[in-house]
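Teaching assistant's notes for section 4

Start the section by putting this record on the projector. Ask students to predict, before seeing the second block, whether Probable glycine dehydrogenase (decarboxylating) subunit 2 will look compact or extended. Collect guesses on the board.
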Amino acid sequence: MNNKLYGNLIFELSHEGRKGYSLPENTFGNYELPLCARRKTDAELPQCDELTVVRHYTNHSENNFGVNNGFYPLGSCTMKYNPIVNEETAAMPGFAALHPLQPAETCQGALEAYYNMQKALSDITGLSEFTLNPFAGAHGELTGLMIIRAYHQHNEDHKRTKVLVPDSAHGTNPASAAVCGLEVVEVKSTPDGLVDVDDLKTHLDDTIAAMMMTNPNTLGLFESDIPEIARLVHECGALMYYDGANLNPMLGACRPGDMGFDVMHINLHKTFSTPHGGGGPGSGPVGVGKGLEQFLPRPRVVKDGSEYKMDTEYAGISVGEFLGNFATMLRAYTYILSLGKENLPMVGPLATLNANYIKESLKDAYELPITGVCKHEFVFNGLKDKSTGVTTMDVAKRLLDYGYHAPTIYFPLLFHEAMMIEPTENESIDTLDCFIDVMHRIAREAAETPDIVKTAPHNTPIGRVDDVLAAKHPILTYKQMISDTQDNG
Ligand SMILES: *Cc1c(COP(=O)(O)O)cnc(C)c1O
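Reveal the predicted structure now:
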């Protein structure tokens, strides 16, 4: 792209006196703002004509990459296709134009959708009741742990201040426990990548509030000892928490409620499509088993005869003023309804099949530290041939040249060159075959012309950035950029 014409920042295109607006004649008169509300100096705004503004942002948007542009095999964060019908539902005026304080009798349809979604999640997970209020997965974890703490306090069991978290857990698990004021105790993994039950036993006593588990875990493995773990944890009086951020592979296979979990969250924005990334929007509903319903945060939507109502009676926990990210809930609910009871159970098997297809097709060229059948995602530990000096970072950058989003890299932390791949159930075999072909091509390049891979990307608007410099000396404002350019001559 020609930077002179399009510029990197709209400020670079600014010319004194140019404008991109024309306002109608002022027929209202002039009303001065009170002094306290006025700026001391004029805001520094770019001055551009409309067409320049349109081109600037359109060109930038074309540099963006999303599921609608191409394959996005990002492990652990499920970048699933968001069907257009989801957007149509969320944009319906009856939903989009609602006011949060509107009386319940004027928005029965919206409350019905919300109520049905609470129930649908109970059916899907085998838990008794759900709140859709939390705004993200991590927010759901915090909510779930607050519920667990409220439960122990209700039982006057005040000693229980520790949460067991496996070393393979997503980083948000220990973080949420800490934010909730609970102490994190790490449980080790076995060499096969599963929770080490013997290590778990050494921690179990009357100070444990809960055990947090992710299943499939961050290695994409099904935690096969859950019944035994649940028995041990319950025996010591603690509760089982299920991190269901990625429930994809479980759909149609099994339900956390049937496995002995008491509290869980689901990321609607991973498991049930809905666009996400860049910090939002998300939704992390929390479900609880029998006996814990009273600790769910308010407000909740309840059904009274044929009428839907907001239950706002304070229960001790509140995680948001209103009903959470309503539009995200609508997208996920649309996704669930459009698949229906017959097709939803196909999601897990297809996600699992796609992941295993890529894994088996590439294990000749990439190191597979944990073999066997995975669930919806798996981890390579870099290229099999370590003599080329080509790292996981290099492979990820080279993938950009071929028009793919990179997989999740250097996570989980259990392997030095981790590369976590999740295709999702939506991809056709043609897409998977093309990706496999490109991954093989990169492995050949690494062996034959490694410099091409080590200096990638070559075809993107911005080449390889200096991560260390960017981390140590970030340039975060336009002014700073100008002064830095001047400093550097
Ligand atoms: C994504 C993820 C989370 C956190 O979800 P956010 O919506 O990003 O807060 C928690 N646990 C697991 C396993 C995840 O993959």
